[in-house]
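Handout, section 3.2

Students often ask what a structure token actually looks like in practice. Rather than define it abstractly, here is a full record for Sugar ABC transporter permease. The first block is the sequence as you would receive it.
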Amino acid sequence: MPFRTRSAYAFLAPYLLVFATFWVWPIINSFLISFQNTRINPWKYSFQANWGRLFYDPAFYNALYNTLIILVIQVPVMIALATVMAVMLNSPLLKARPLFRFAFFAPVVVGEVAYAAVFRLMFSLDFGVINKMISAIGFSPISWFDNANAAMAVIILAVTWRWAGYNAIIILAGLQAIPDDVYEAATLDRVSKVQQFFHITLPLLKPIILFCVVLSVIGTMQLFTEPFLITNRGGPGGGTETLGLFLYRQGFTALNFGYASAIAYTMAALAVAISLLNLWVGRDPK
């Protein structure tokens, strides 16, 4: 092996060692643990204890249902809102554009615990500002956290508020990569702004939007902080428990590490499958 090649591997060795120790081995070990019954001592191989239980566990299907509800409702709404925000931020008519870009991106910088606490206070039945506004217009206050649908709506609003601006900045970068000549030619052909948006902007932004959708799908499948803190660990009665929260409950509350590992790999497989489906649906026809 040439000296320069040996030198390169020598410099890479510390990183590769850390990567193998803290990434590769835990992933492999977690997969092996998913086939063991960790509720007995010593642990023993048992496919039925974890993977067999997974297919018949109503609590798992409840968490899966809640996660898919958030995925189906929140992700399309957030991506649509982010696209509109990006178009507005890209408008030459908008003054102080850097300030608005920072304002829309700022929620991502806020700590998850802090913003979750703020949302829980905002929707409080007794002193929340949302119920104060509802009462001011003559309606009865809503007990947001005692109703599963209302609590789910709060989580969807919170996640959308946090990540819409982040996706808008990504889409904005894609907008700025579109040549101005395309719009100038369309304007000369008397194509309206609305038609330009649907027939020029959106088709050219499709790869960027698909990228944002895939990121959002992966993030939603791992959703944990919002149901844990805003709705008090997936309440009421598990009505907002997501797969991420269900995994946490099995692994760190019930200490059932084998079942938690099976749930983790199921989450990863679902995220990959849904992401690939999005890429397939959004592919360019040949």
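Discussion prompt for tutorial groups: Strands lie at 36-37, 44-45. How would you have guessed this from the sequence alone?
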